[in-house]
Write a structure and sequence with these properties.
The protein is of the alpha+beta class. Strands 1-2 form a two-stranded antiparallel sheet. It contains 10 helices and 2 strands, in the order βαααααβααααα. It has helices at about 30-35, 40-55, 65-70, 75-85, 95-110, 140-150, 155-165, 175-180, 185-195, 200-215; strands at about 10-25, 125-140.
Length: about 220
């Protein structure tokens, strides 16, 4: 499994620069139109930025859409529908966008009483630009990989788990891809792929990954 020919895993870090789109929503119809028309990186940002805000405990809602319709419109039923979405079920952002649109269209057809939020409580559509930075951490076997997991910033974990799967339109994270393709440990790779990162804070996700990788370390010696 481990040999001199293994391509090293290079750990990257990232910084997200947030940009305003000058688009807002005061009710569900405006939210629907915004979701239809904003750029893909705006959808990605609003589905994931809560994980960068709350490193050490899971956010109450897994995405900004859920949080806004619950806190400002009082529509907990719709918030729950949004929160139940698993972005990893979708191969790309456009497929995820279409699912959000369908949920909103079906919900607004139900005739549920809805209103507009007060000034200052609008949903602000933003978009992000991700700046990637190569770190000095790299691994050629599971022991080195686990040791790097213990050291990397949480933004690096976010980059390799969340950014890789959706922004690159690849239905796998960087970690499991490398473990299967370079180390030849498909069983471990599959266990990592089956993890639901939306159930953890980033720090808890790090701990779970370290524990899982550690359980396979002796096999890669």
């Amino acid at each position: 499994m481990n040999n001199g020919g293994v391509s090293p895993f290079l750990f990257w870090d990232c910084v997200q620069l947030i940009e305003l789109t000058n688009r807002t929503a005061s009710d569900l119809n405006e939210l629907l139109n915004g979701i239809r028309e904003v750029p893909p990186n705006s959808i990605f940002l609003h589905m994931h930025q809560s994980f960068l805000k709350y490193h050490f405990f899971p956010p109450e809602y897994t995405n900004d859409f859920s949080a806004w319709v619950s806190h400002h419109l009082g529509d907990d039923a719709l918030a729950e529908k949004f929160s139940e979405l698993d972005p990893f079920d979708y191969a790309n952002i456009e497929d995820l966008r279409q699912r959000l649109i369908k949920i909103l269209e079906e919900h607004t057809r139900d005739g549920i009483a809805r209103g507009r939020v007060r000034q200052g409580e609008e949903f602000y559509f933003n978009q992000s630009v991700t700046i990637e930075m190569l770190t000095d951490l790299r691994a050629t076997n599971l022991r080195e990989f686990r040791e790097c997991l213990e050291k990397i910033p949480l933004t690096s974990l976010y980059y390799h788990i969340f950014e890789a799967r959706l922004r690159l339109e690849r239905k796998t994270d960087d970690f499991s891809y490398w473990i299967e393709d370079s180390l030849g440990i498909p069983e471990l790779a599959e266990k990592i792929r089956r993890m639901d990162p939306y159930m953890y804070s980033l720090e808890d996700l790090r701990r779970e990954l370290i524990k899982l990788v550690g359980s396979y370390e002796s096999r890669d010696a």
